[in-house]
Each structure stands twice: as structure tokens, then as C-alpha cells.
Amino acid sequence: MLIQRKEKNTIITDGNEMTMQKNSVAYEKFSSIQTNIQFMERKAGSVQTIAVTSANKGEGKSFFITNYANTSALYKQKTLLIDVDFYNPKISKQYKTKLMPGLSNVLVDMIAFEEAVIPLENKYLSFLPIGTLPPNPLELLRSDEFKALLTKLKEEFDVILLDCPPINLFTDARVVAAESDGTILLINSQTTSEEDVRKSKSLLDQVDANILGAVLNNKRYNQKQMASYNYY
Ligand SMILES: Nc1ncnc2c1ncn2[C@@H]1O[C@H](COP(=O)(O)OP(=O)(O)O)[C@@H](O)[C@H]1O
Ligand SMILES: [Mg+2]
């Protein structure tokens, strides 16, 4: 299945604000983040699996990681974006893949990854939706199957990006961060307090996560939209 796109360098499809135009300021910013992270990777050794999290909901994690995945693909890195937020699977919703088989089905039902992965229009970019919502997501993320899946995917992709739930609210992000080569902590200048950042940092340190760095986002989330976050 191909997800429709508005134009070549546009990421998301249904006309919402998660869209980045080529030559836009956003494109410049993401290219610069891409370069910085590649530089950090070179220093840190091989960093293929990258978890993205932040303290709270609605801080821009899914927005950031989607744009980052797109930039990475534009740099011709074979990129896989995985939705790992069982509480608010934003990217699966955006791509209208919420009801499709995905991560949970690969882990629980043992369907093949190849059956669930969705190639996007840029041949360097693929997406693994969240899949059927399980009663206990944490158990799936702690399973040997999850570790084995990441190991297998590292052979197939250059970069694997994991869109996590907020780390200060759910244990999941810590589990994923612990299994990832690196973690990016997103900080929202308008909603993440210093205390929040300290807490996120200490939660990541407790599991020995390799913090690659922080990304600052300054978009305040619209309160009306926030009310639609049922899962949190
Ligand atoms: N820098 C930004 N520019 C434009 N829109 C943004 C930006 N950051 C976040 N958003 C928008 O804010 C909303 C919340 O962001 P989202 O990525 O879903 O948050 P999270 O994944 O942290 O819960 C989304 O509608 C997203 O598109
Ligand atoms: Mg999100």
C-alpha cells in the first residue's frame, strides 16, 4: 500500500500541519539536526535504533520524528519509522493505518514484519504501524521478541526511529530507550519545565539509556486539540 503524498518532499498526506515543504525553514532545521546527529553517531559508534521521547504529551515528539525520518530518507538512508506509542498512536492515525497489522501483531501473532511494514513513496522510507492495541503493551516491549525484532531490523535498515509515549507518564519509553542504541529527548520550550527535564533525564539514566542529545521544540499545543487526547 502506498500512502499518498502531496508532493515529493512532503511527508504526511492528509493535509495537516505535519507537513514539511522542501526549501522551507523546517527543511533547513531538520537537515541541520540530521547532520548533527550523524556527527554524534560517528563519535558514539554505530547508532541505528533511535528512540524519541519527551516528558509530557503533545510536545511534538511524533511531529519531530516524522520529519526526522523524512529527512533521513532524503539523505538516502534506508529508514524505518515505528509507532511505539500504544496510548496515542499519532503517526498510525495520521497515515490512516491504525486498524492495520503492525508492531503488536508482529510481536504477538508472529506475523512477518514484511507483511506489516508499509513502504512509503520515498523508496528509502518505510513505516511500521502500531497494530492491534494489546491489553498490556509494556509486556510486549519487554519481550525477547521485541529485542529480536530490533536486531533483525538493524540488518535491513540504516536507521530505525521509534516514536515513544511521554517518558514521565509511562514506563514504555524507558523500556524502548534501554533497547535502543540512542535516545533523543525532545524538550518543548513552552510546556516542558526544568523539573520535567530533570525527571526525564534521571528516568533515562536509570536504564542506562544513551542520550544522544536534546531537541528543542517551541510549538505550544492547542488546548482544544489537547482535549482529544483520550488515551492519556
Ligand atoms: N514545531 C512544530 N510546528 C508545527 N506543528 C507542531 C510542531 N510541534 C508539534 N506540532 C503539532 O503539535 C501537535 C502535537 O504534537 P505531537 O507530535 O503529536 O506531540 P507528541 O507526539 O509529543 O504527543 C501535533 O498536531 C503536531 O503536528
Ligand atoms: Mg506522539
Describe the protein:
This protein has 232 residues and is α/β, with parallel strands linked by helices. Helix content is 40%, strand content 16%. A hairpin with a 5-residue loop joins strand 3 and strand 4. Helix 1 packs across helix 2. Adenosine-5'-diphosphate binds next to helix 2. Magnesium ion (MG) binds next to helix 2.
Helix content: 25-40%
Q: Given the helix and strand composition, which structural class is it?
A: alpha/beta
Count of extended strands: 7
* Largest sheet features: 7 strands, mixed
Gist of the model:
By secondary structure, the chain is of the alpha/beta class.
What attributes does this structure have?
232 residues, alpha/beta, Rossmann fold, 7-stranded mixed beta sheet, 7 strands, 40% helix, disordered N terminus, disordered C terminus, binds adenosine-5'-diphosphate, binds magnesium ion
Helix and strand layout, with pairings?
Layout (H helix, E strand, L loop, with lengths): L24 H20 L4 E6 L6 H14 L4 E5 L6 H5 L8 H6 L4 H4 L1 E2 L5 E4 L8 H5 L2 H13 L2 E5 L8 H8 L2 E7 L5 H13 L4 E7 L5 H4 L6
Parallel strand pairs: 1-5, 1-6, 2-4, 2-5, 6-7
Antiparallel strand pairs: 3-4
Helix pairs in contact: 1-2
Adenosine-5'-diphosphate binds next to helix 2.
